[in-house]
Amino acid sequence: MRRDMDDTIQGWPYEPEPGEVIAREVRARDGRMVVQVRVELGVLQLEVGGRPDGNRPHGFPSYLDYLRYRASGRGQTEAGKAARWTMSPDHCVEADREFVQYYHRRVAWLTLQRYDKALLDADHTLALMDFVCKHGIDEDYIASHERFRGLVLFHRTQAAAALALERRKPDEAIDVVREGADRLTVHHNRWSEEHNDSETPNQPLIEQLRVLEQEIRKNFAVEKTLREQLEDAVAEEDYELAARLRDQIRARAR
């Protein structure tokens, strides 16, 4: 039985444009769907569900689930306060492995316009980042991940806005983009203040989201979303109008 990938590689040339991700979803020999990402030296093959490598670390769906289990069983100190559980060097290595796997699959889903899948993978990465912030081995390790939180927020916002547009809800897409840009701005400002470093990709990403917001407004002729109208009504203390707008927003969310 042949074990090389010559046919796959030769039939799928690697000629990307700058910044382009080359990916496809294919059916494996056993009938399951997998995601393949073409890279310079070959092909990455990722599972479409669960952890991208198909493994169940220590029997858990993901390494994040395992870490949460470990952190929850630490117990209490003699003073009765919950002890702070801290990741070990081995935990950091395995967490980084999961970060990389979910990154590759997230950008593949965005390329394939599978925005629901990209959203799930972005949320997993953000949850893993939150865990690292709370339980990371040291400040340098935490910072090495927080530096890239903005990129994950950007991908999440892209996916959520695209999903809203697919559902023909441009108002919702605009609200998603505005919220994402605000979250990214807060992160960027906090990072710059705490690390005296503004040399991150965050500012260009924020600008891209502002441009995306204006494009959606123009293409779908949306002047103000219901949420923006609600903000105006509250600011003007028009509480009757605000109540009606809240009802409309709740109805739209159903």
From TrEMBL:
Keywords: DNA damage, SOS response
Domain annotation UVR: ranges: 220-254
GO BP, sorted A to Z: SOS response
Keyword DNA damage: yes
Name of the featured protein: Uncharacterized protein with conserved CXXC pairs
Organism of this sequence: Singulisphaera acidiphila (strain ATCC BAA-1392 / DSM 18658 / VKM B-2454 / MOB10)
